[in-house]
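It is worth pausing here to work through a concrete case rather than discussing structure prediction in the abstract. The textbook approach is simple: state the sequence, then state the predicted structure, then interpret. We follow exactly that order.
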Amino acid sequence: MASLGFSCPASSLLFSSSVVNHPRNLQGRFIVSSSTSGSELMSKSAVSETTESPRTSLGLKNLTEIFWVDVHSAEGKPLNVGLQEPVTIGCSTLEQVENVAVRVELSNGCAGWGEVPVVPWVNWNQATVLEKVRKACEFLSQGPPVTLNLVLHQISEMFPGTEFASEKGKENQVISLVPFVLDPSYDFDLCMKVRAGLEMALIDAVANSIDVPLWRLFGGVSNSLSTAATISTTSSAKAFDLAAKFCKQGFKTLEVKLGRNLNADIEVLQAVRAGHPHCSFILDANEGYTPKEAIEVLHKLNEEGVSPILFEQPVHRDDWRGLGDVSNVARHKYGISVVADESCRDMIDIQKLMEENLVDVINIKLSKFGVLGILEIVEMVKNSGLELMIDSVAETRLATGVAGHLAAGLGCFKYVNISAPILFSEDPVVGGYEGTVAFISEIHLSLKFGVCAQFVLPNYFAQIWMQVSDMDMCSTLV
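Step two, the predicted structure:
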């Protein structure tokens, strides 16, 4: 199975630059001179080549070391959005999105935004997240000017996250963070999601300060990409309707959530194929099968002449042997790639997946690893042969926009599904990336324009700036 071309030198991601900075003038701009194409990352990825002329770019790593962050204000607010209808994933049902929006404004007047998703299968809620964000925002607002690198490090120390997601991970971490590891009430997943939201906001604010769109900051490979759409756990009749709808909207890949009942799942997949005969589809079992059942699904689908391009998390996250067994059968007998999602909780898990060749693809989410974590993973797996997938979890276009910038800018994600906002009954962000739903540049993520938009939150007035291209997208909270 072919792998993505991750063999590019580190400079392709870091953009060596010549920078002139006025160090004590936080209102000042950077003068940047550099060039990079990153085109070697383009092959077989879900991004589309940018149509814009080449432009100088300053990479994120360099920027973290030279840009001084002086936070004027920071806050978190509820971000509640209704769904068109309840969404079922595995055994959990989501009836409304109750996330948290994070806003950071720098002393130069530039602001950035992030988002923390709250899902029903965790043991914390929006109020818990708001309190965590409040403490972090208080810290940021009261702190002295520091480099972006240092403030991101401080945030990571406040919110240890995926470093400790697995028991093995906890056992192998540094002694200085033992109090977190030993506290049974400490929720590493929660803290990682809060950290990710804060990282988004800080990096977005800094990008606006130097007038560089995020996709360029992350690598500049492309300003557009294609995304799959998701069909959550549902009946075969509803699956048919959704597949037909997504077909008309231009989606070419569908991710189908299954894993409840073997026979019912087969019927759903047949309905999806009938509703969208020419689509590629990703089968996401969400840990729902035993290894034997997962292999049986592959066999039955093969008999029907239906073959998914990916089989995501077929077995329980801790069933490493079962995951490897299913992957071997899928890979060698049916030519299907197996994806690790829930089994991919931290860097140690990823290392195990690579070393033991347990899967062909890993699914990494912005809310699970944060911006810096994803950049580290990309570097980590570039020579391993593993393919990369980026996904979203019940997030609005605040977070999926950042994920889109990240995937388009890096250009190394072969599989993309950041379509969560199409499930909402309303869109709190007016404007943002262009698209015809499926292709974000046309219906995906066309990061090519600047508009003034409204971001609606009750009783909250502020101005946000989301950099989506050579122009700013000005959004107003009402």
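Step three, interpretation. The first strand starts at residue 18 and ends at 20. The two ends are 50 Å apart (CA to CA).
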